[in-house]
C-alpha cells in the first residue's frame, strides 16, 4: 500500500476558502482543527441551570405534544421520556457539557424522526466539520455497491487522490461499515434514509445536530482512476476541519410546515465550502441532477426565454427538444433511440419552501405560477411524458406540495389526513384555542379535532381521527395542466412535505414512482418549532416553554399524517415512507453523466404509457342564438368528451360527445338558462382502460368571459 499525507493540500484549499470568505459575506466565519474547536466551544458552554432548562422543555415537548410517541415506543422499544428524566437526575457539575449534548442528541436520534430534534447551541449551531472531498455511490455490473470521490475542494491539488478515485476502505472499516457507523446518529427512519444520511455524514457533518468527530483525521484507502485495476492500493491521511459562523437557517414550520431542517444546514455548508467560486452550482448529493454543466443554448424547440427558470433554486427543467443549457441535464438524455419522435420533459423540484423574503401567500403563489408555466410548456413541447424529480427534497409547505398535484391529473386530489396525540395538554390546548384564549393558527386548524379530544377520556384512543390540513377547494381550484403520463423520482432523502407529495402522487394515482432507493425518507408529520409553540402559547399560565439558551433549537412532530386512497388509506407515512413501484440501481454512467441511465429508464417507463391530449382550439357564441356555444377541440387517445359549465365551485353538467378519431373536432353546446355565476366551460375526456371501460383521462377548462361571437351555426 502506498501511503501519503494530504494535510498540505487540504491547507492549500483552506487558504483559498479563507481568501474568498469576504466575497461570500462571511467575514466572521472561522476555521478550526477538531481540538481547537472543542476548546473554543468550552468558552461558550451552557451552564448547569441552562442544561436543566433544556431538559425540562424537551421532556415537556416529547411527553405532551409528540404525536408519534406511542408508536415509536412500540416500534423501537424505547422510552424517550424516561431517558430524559434519567439524564436530568444524573446531571450535575461533573458531567462534561459535551457528554450532555451527546446523550441528549442520542435520545432524539433514537426516535428516528428528523422532524423531532434538538439543535445544539452556539458555537455548534452554525458550524460544520468537513473533509476536502465528497463521496458518491453506484452499483457495478454485478449489483454490488461501489464508492468514489465525487468532488474535491478548489485548491486541493493532489496528484493521485482526485475526482473518480474509487474508495476502498475508511479508517480500517469497509465503506459500508463506515456508513453504518455514521448512520447511527443520523436519525433516518428507514433503511433508505439511514444509508443516504450516513453517506452524507462521512465527509460533512453539520454540528447543529451532531458533535464533532471523535477522531482528528481519517485514513482513506483508494485507487486512482488512472492506475491499472491490479495496481497497488493507495492510502491518504486527511484531517478533519471545522468551519463556524457561516449563517443561520430560517425554519418553515407551524400550521402548514413540514421540512427537515438539519439537512438544510448541510446543503448550505456544502455550497459555501465546495462551490463558493462557482455561482449557481448545485452538487449532485443534494441536487441529484448532477454537477454543473456549461453549454450554450441551442434552438429547435421552445424559445430561449421560455426555457429560462424563473425560480432556479427551486424549479429547473429540460425538454427533449429544449437545447443544452447551463445547469440543466443534457436534452439527449431525454431521447430514446428507438422512439426518436417522442418528446419528454424533466422537472426538478428542489424543495417546497417559501423564500424567506416572501410572505407565505406571495411565495406559494409565485411557486405555483412558475410550476404551471413549466407544465404548460411541457404540455405543448413534451406531450409524451413528464419526469418529476424530488430526490433530496427536504420538504417545505404542505398545502403548496399537495396543491401542485392537481396540475398533473384530471381527477380531484384527496388531501392527506392528520391526527393529534390525545394527551391532557393537547385536549386543553384545543379547548383554549376554540375559546380564543390563545392564538395558534386558524380555527379550522383546530376545530376538526375538538370533538375527538373532548371524548378522549372515554374512548381511550391514543390519536384523534385524521382530518386534512389542506382545504379540498384550495388544492383543486385549477385542474389539470399537463395531460401526458408522469413519473416521480424519489430517494431516501425525499422527506417531509416531499413525502406528502409522493404519497399524494401514489394515493391519487397520478403516475408511477421510480426510486433510486426502495422508499422515501418517511417523514410523516406536521412539524412545529419550539419557537413557534413558545410564542403562540405564551399566554398559558405555567407553560415551561420559553427561549432556549445560546440559539439552541428544538422541533416536534405535532400532527401525525395518515395516507388516503383505496390501497393505503389510513396507513401512517412516518417511518415507512412511500414505496417505489420500481427501483433503479444508480450506475457509474449515472454518477458521471448527469443520471443518463436513470433518465433513460424513466423515459422507457413513460414510453409504454398512453399519452392523452385535449385542447380547446377555438370557442365562440352564435350570433343567432346566444345560448349556442361552438367549440373546436384537438384530441388524442380519447373516445368521449363531456362538457360541463362551472363557477364558484359548482358544476352544471351539459352533454357528452363521441370522438371518432384523433384530430380536431367541432361541437355545439346548447346551453339552458344558467345563473350568472357560470364562468367556465370544463371539458373532460375519457378513454378505454385495460378493463375495457371508459376512464377519465384528460381535462381542460376555458373561460366563457373570453368568448368571441361567430356567425356560424
Secondary-structure map with pairings?
Layout lengths: L1 E4 L1 H13 L10 E4 H9 L5 H18 L3 H8 L3 H11 L6 H13 L7 E3 L8 E3 L2 E7 L5 E8 L13 E5 L2 E2 H9 L7 H10 L3 E3 L10 E7 L10 E6 L1 E4 L12 E3 L1 H14 L40 E5 L25 E5 L10 H22 L4 E4 L5 E3 H7 L12 E4 L3 H11 L12 H13 L7 E2 L17 E5 L6 H11 L4 E4 L9 E5 H7 L16 E10 L19 E2 L4 H5 L3 H12 L5 E10 L5 E9 L3 E8 L2 E9 L4 E8 L9 E9 L5 E10 L4 E3 L3
Parallel strand pairs: 1-11, 15-16, 16-20, 20-21, 21-24, 25-32
Antiparallel strand pairs: 2-12, 3-23, 4-9, 4-12, 5-6, 6-7, 7-8, 7-10, 10-11, 13-17, 14-15, 18-19, 18-23, 22-23, 25-26, 26-29, 27-28, 27-30, 30-31
Helix pairs in contact: 3-5, 5-6, 7-8, 11-14, 12-13
Amino acid at each position: 500500500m502506498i501511503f501519503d499525507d494530504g494535510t498540505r493540500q487540504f491547507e492549500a484549499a483552506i487558504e483559498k476558502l479563507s481568501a474568498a470568505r469576504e466575497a461570500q459575506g462571511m467575514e466572521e466565519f472561522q476555521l478550526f482543527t477538531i481540538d481547537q474547536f472543542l476548546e473554543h466551544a468550552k468558552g461558550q458552554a451552557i451552564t448547569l441551570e441552562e442544561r436543566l432548562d433544556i431538559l425540562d422543555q424537551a421532556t415537556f415537548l416529547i411527553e405532551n405534544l409528540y404525536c408519534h410517541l406511542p408508536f415509536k415506543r412500540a416500534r423501537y422499544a424505547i422510552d424517550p421520556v424516561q431517558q430524559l428524566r434519567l439524564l436530568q437526575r444524573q446531571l450535575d457539575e461533573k458531567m462534561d457539557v459535551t457528554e450532555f449534548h451527546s446523550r441528549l442528541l442520542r435520545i432524539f436520534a433514537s426516535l428516528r424522526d428528523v422532524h423531532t430534534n434538538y439543535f445544539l447551541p452556539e458555537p455548534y449551531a452554525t458550524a460544520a466539520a468537513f473533509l476536502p472531498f465528497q463521496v458518491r455511490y453506484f452499483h457495478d455490473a454485478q449489483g454490488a455497491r461501489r464508492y468514489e470521490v465525487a468532488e474535491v475542494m478548489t485548491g486541493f491539488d493532489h496528484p493521485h487522490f482526485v475526482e473518480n478515485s474509487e474508495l476502498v476502505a475508511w479508517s480500517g472499516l469497509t465503506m459500508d461499515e463506515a456508513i453504518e457507523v455514521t448512520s447511527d446518529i443520523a436519525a433516518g427512519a428507514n433503511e433508505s434514509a439511514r444509508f443516504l444520511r450516513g453517506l452524507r455524514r462521512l465527509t460533512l457533518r453539520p454540528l447543529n445536530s451532531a458533535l464533532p468527530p471523535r477522531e482528528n483525521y481519517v485514513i482513506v484507502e483508494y485507487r486512482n482512476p488512472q492506475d491499472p485495476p491490479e495496481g497497488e492500493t493507495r492510502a491518504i491521511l486527511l484531517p478533519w476541519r471545522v468551519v463556524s459562523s457561516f449563517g443561520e437557517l430560517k425554519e418553515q414550520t407551524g400550521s402548514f410546515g413540514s421540512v427537515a431542517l438539519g439537512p438544510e444546514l448541510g446543503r448550505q455548508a456544502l455550497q459555501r465550502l465546495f462551490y463558493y467560486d462557482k455561482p449557481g452550482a448545485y452538487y449532485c448529493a443534494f441536487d441529484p441532477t448532477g454537477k454543473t454543466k456549461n453549454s450554450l443554448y441551442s434552438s429547435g424547440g421552445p424559445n430561449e426565454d421560455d426555457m429560462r427558470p424563473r425560480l432556479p433554486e427551486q424549479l429547473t427543467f429540460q425538454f427533449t427538444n429544449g437545447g443544452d443549457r447551463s445547469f440543466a441535464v443534457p436534452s439527449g438524455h431525454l431521447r430514446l433511440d428507438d422512439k426518436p419522435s417522442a418528446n419528454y420533459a424533466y422537472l426538478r423540484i428542489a424543495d417546497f419552501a417559501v423564500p424567506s423574503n416572501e410572505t407565505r401567500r406571495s411565495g406559494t403563489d409565485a411557486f405555483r405560477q412558475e410550476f404551471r408555466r413549466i407544465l404548460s410548456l411541457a404540455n405543448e413541447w413534451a406531450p409524451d411524458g413528464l419526469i418529476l424529480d424530488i430526490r433530496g427534497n427536504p420538504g417545505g409547505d404542505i398545502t403548496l406540495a399537495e396543491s401542485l398535484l392537481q396540475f398533473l391529473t384530471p381527477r380531484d386530489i384527496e388531501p392527506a389526513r392528520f391526527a393529534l396525540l390525545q394527551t391532557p395538554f393537547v385536549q386543553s390546548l384545543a379547548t383554549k384555542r376554540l375559546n380564543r384564549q390563545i392564538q395558534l393558527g386558524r380555527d379550522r386548524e383546530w376545530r376538526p379535532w375538538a370533538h375527538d379530544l373532548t371524548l378522549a377520556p372515554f374512548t381511550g384512543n391514543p390519536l384523534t381521527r385524521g382530518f386534512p390540513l389542506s382545504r379540498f377547494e384550495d388544492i383543486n381550484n385549477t385542474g389539470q395542466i399537463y395531460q401526458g403520463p408522469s413519473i416521480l423520482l424519489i430517494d431516501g432523502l425525499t422527506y417531509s412535505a416531499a413525502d406528502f407529495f409522493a404519497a399524494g402522487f401514489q394515493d391519487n394515482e397520478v403516475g408511477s414512482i421510480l426510486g433510486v432507493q426502495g422508499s422515501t425518507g418517511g417523514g410523516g408529520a406536521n412539524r412545529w418549532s419550539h419557537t413557534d409553540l413558545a410564542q403562540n402559547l405564551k399566554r398559558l399560565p405555567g407553560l415551561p416553554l420559553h427561549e432556549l439558551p445560546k440559539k439552541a433549537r428544538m422541533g416536534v412532530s405535532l400532527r401525525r399524517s395518515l395516507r388516503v386512497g383505496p390501497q393505503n388509506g389510513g396507513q401512517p407515512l412516518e417511518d415507512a415512507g412511500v414505496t417505489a413501484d420500481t427501483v433503479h440501481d444508480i450506475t457509474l454512467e449515472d454518477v458521471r453523466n448527469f443520471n443518463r441511465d436513470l433518465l433513460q429508464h424513466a423515459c422507457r417507463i413513460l414510453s409504454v404509457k398512453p399519452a392523452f391530449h385535449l385542447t380547446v382550439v377555438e370557442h365562440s357564441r352564435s350570433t343567432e342564438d346566444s345560448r349556442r356555444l361552438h367549440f373546436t377541440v384537438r384530441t388524442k387517445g380519447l373516445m368521449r368528451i363531456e362538457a360541463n359549465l362551472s363557477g364558484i365551485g359548482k358544476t352544471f353538467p351539459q352533454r357528452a360527445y363521441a370522438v371518432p378519431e384523433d384530430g380536431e373536432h367541432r361541437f355545439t353546446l346548447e346551453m339552458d338558462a344558467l345563473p350568472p355565476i357560470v364562468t367556465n366551460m370544463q371539458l373532460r375526456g375519457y378513454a378505454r382502460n385495460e378493463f375495457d371501460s371508459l376512464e377519465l383521462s384528460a381535462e381542460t377548462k376555458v373561460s366563457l368571459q373570453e368568448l368571441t361571437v361567430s356567425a356560424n351555426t
